[in-house]
Specification:
Blueprint lengths: L1 E6 L2 E2 L6 E9 L6 E7 L6 E6 L5 E3 L7 E5 L5 E6 L8 E8 L4 E3 L3 E4 L3
Parallel strand pairs: 2-11
Antiparallel strand pairs: 1-3, 3-8, 4-5, 4-9, 5-6, 7-8, 9-10, 9-11
Length: 115
């Protein structure tokens, strides 16, 4: 199986920046798509960004132009660089690993941007 561990969450003032990391371990493959989703209280979980093994990226409309997703050379770690943060970005951010047949989720990391 695959284990995902997120890190880098915390409290950031509006307009600030934060970098999230997700390390995948276990039975991982470089062809898998990895991404970030977020969920705020009372709301549905939504796509933030994802990235394929070939480097193609996809972003949710609310974060385009502000967030950047990337992955390292061995493709087992994915990052989310968050800039120009807004209070509406406050949520639990979850890392996702999506392979050919199976999908795995991390435990989530809290990002808080106060009003």
């Amino acid at each position: 199986q695959v284990q995902l561990v997120e890190s880098g969450g915390g409290l950031v003032q509006p307009g600030g920046s934060l970098r999230l990391s997700c390390a995948a371990s276990g039975r991982t493959f470089s062809i898998a798509t990895m991404g970030w989703y977020r969920q705020a209280p009372g709301k549905q979980r939504e796509l933030v960004a994802d990235i394929t093994s070939g480097g193609s990226t996809n972003y949710g409309d609310s974060v385009k132009g502000r967030f950047t997703i990337s992955r390292d050379g061995n493709k087992n770690t994915v990052y989310l660089q968050m800039s120009s943060l807004k209070p509406e970005d406050t949520a639990v951010y979850y890392c996702r690993y999506s392979g050919k047949l199976l999908m795995y989720w991390g435990q989530g990391t809290q990002v808080t941007v106060p009003s």
